[in-house]
Amino acid sequence: MIGLIDGPIAINHPDFMSNNIHEIPSSLPGICLQANSAACQHGTFVAAILSARRGSPAPAICPDCTLLVRPIFAETTSGNGQMPSAAPEDLATAIVESVNAGACVLNLSVALVQQSTKGERELEEALNYAARRNVILVAAAGNQGTVASTIITRHPCVIPVAACDLQGRPISYSNLGSSIGRRGLSAPGDAITSLGSDGRPRTWGGTSVAAPFVTGAIALLWSEFPRATAAEIRHAVAQTSASRRTSVVPPLLDAWSAYQVMLRAHVRN
User: What's the rounded Cα separation, in Å, for the pair 8 and 31?
Assistant: First the structure.
């Protein structure tokens, strides 16, 4: 099961596999009330990359996977193409609740605001909790165009995702850094088409739309090898780079290579 910590989604969109989408109760609704809000547009766009039906204008990576929606963004502003933000303590609560609800992999396409020592401590504890429960965490690297890290991207159990163009080159505003290059992956994040909350396809870019490519690939891989451990899945995905990583730019996601790694491991077993 995929845990989507994001905005609410337009569940009534005809291209969603609605039977596979479930809401984790919280103080925010998981179903959009304002289709033009940034939260609804962002949540719907990311959710569709993961679970839109295969025959839609923007077919999903893992349409039959169960999606657990834990809203974290309030519908307060009109969509402007920016990655919505959340306080560390709110994200920490959402992570713990998603893990307790049964998510195996979490997608964090979120930027942090209102950072504080207490909030960051709670967030680190939540990330540690998810790791102890063998949950894989995938997080957007951020869109500030900096070479740096955050409490999320430098956590040893998080797979940070940078955004690349169609030639596999990092887009200009994707964050990079030593922890991102060492443990992360690059995925498509330039002019990506997915579902819009108004019922029509829309195009967006950034690390928040690159992250679900990695999340979806991991979920699809786990569905093919349901007895695999989180460590095995992480190892298979990391095989995109055989040598020790020293670049601030992470290697490209290679789902087929990851599948081959899993296939060889499970044939031997």
Answer: 5
